[in-house]
Amino acid sequence: MDSFSWFICNWWNFKTVAVSSDQNVYVAGSTTGSFGSQTNQGGRDVFVSKVDGTGSIQWTKFVGSSGDEEAFGIAVSPDGNSIYVVGRTTGNFSTNTNSGFNDGFVAKLSDSGSLTWVKLIGSESQDNATDVSISPDGNSVYVVGYTLGLLTGQSSVQGVDSYLAKFDGNMDWLNIIPGTNDEYALNVKATADSTAIYIAGSALKSRINGQEMSSGSISTFLVKYLTNGTFTWARLTNSFSATSSGLAVSSGSNEIYSSVSSASALIYRFSACPNGTYYPDGLSGECFDCPVGSTCSVGSTTPVVCGSGKYSRAGSVACLDCQQGSYCVNGELTM
Ligand SMILES: [Ca+2]
Ligand SMILES: [Ca+2]
Asked: How far is CA 127 from the centre of its chain?
């Protein structure tokens, strides 16, 4: 048991992997077997393993009940001390009783392999937790997933609904992505500047906040939330039998990459508008020129109107003093 390659055997189902800042690798998946001191509780249990930079397995911990567990997402806190795993379960966990069929679960483990807690996100119907991301300060844990039922805080059911939930030990809030039919949130990333959370997923015959998805086949979408839970916008990324497969945000928080599996593998890039341009959503491939009388710095969502006695030309980043012998109203220069 001293090499990573040993670990890949056919009754272990790897699903997800994360790397900590101190170069340890955490993997999660599910298994019907037992392993070392870890005894399977029944059906499939989730396993979490820590592998160090040399490929040596440091520990393996089971997260299981008598029901079936599967893991879909894993994240490590920036300080490397906490590991969060999300997935679904048909069983019960100590103080958390399953609400029916599958419930989504969130499990927190320490970097030494002890299980801190397990929380369920569930309705009387099918529920799932698909991905997890952690804020830069490590205090906020964002979980996405989808439900066929009615979750706490959810007012009505529109086909398959997707949620974004925030945890800081307990669940702070859970918001439903505003879609009209079936939406499946599959990937989540909190930005490094702590301002936003991006969610990628797949949708069927749905409009998300007015943004039309494909009417006939599975589309993929990108959604932005603010860190206080406010929905910001939705974008269609691909409209032809596509599934969201990954999501990444640049360290500067100004570039979003969304990967999609369709007839071919695709990557969509959304970036902040450059100086002298703007876009209402802040990220776009089609930025507008800053209008006459205003200025726009990089990433602008709204042009800033020049003050009295100042003017600017289209595409400006700075207001200029009104010229002698001219007058300037609302940022426009009149000779
Ligand atoms: Ca189990
Ligand atoms: Ca359920």
From this structure: 17
| Residues by chain with Cβ below 5 Å of ion ligand 2 | 99-101, 103, 122, 127
Show pLDDT as tens, one digit a residue, over the chain (335 residues): 444 444 444 446 667 788 888 889 999 999 999 988 999 999 999 999 999 988 889 999 999 999 999 999 999 999 999 999 999 999 999 889 999 999 999 999 999 999 999 999 999 999 999 999 999 999 999 999 999 999 988 889 999 999 999 999 899 999 999 999 999 999 999 999 998 999 999 999 999 998 888 877 899 999 999 999 999 889 888 888 889 999 999 998 888 999 999 888 999 888 888 899 998 876 665 789 999 999 998 878 899 999 889 999 999 999 999 988 888 988 888 88
314 alpha carbon – ligand 2 mean position (Å):
55
What is the rounded distance in angstroms from the CA atom of residue 254 to the CA atom of residue 251?
Answer: 8
| pTM value surpassing 0.70 | yes
In eight-state DSSP terms, residue 116 is E
User: Relative to the alpha carbon of 98, which ligand is closest?
Assistant: 2
The number of the ligand nearest the C-alpha atom of 101 reads 2
CA of 86 to the centre of ligand 1 (A): 14
> 121: CA distance to ligand 2 center in Å?
8
**276-306 burial, b for 16+ CB within 10 Å, e for fewer?**
bbbbeebbbeebeebbbbbbbbebbeebbeb
Write out the two tokens for 125.
Answer: 């119907």
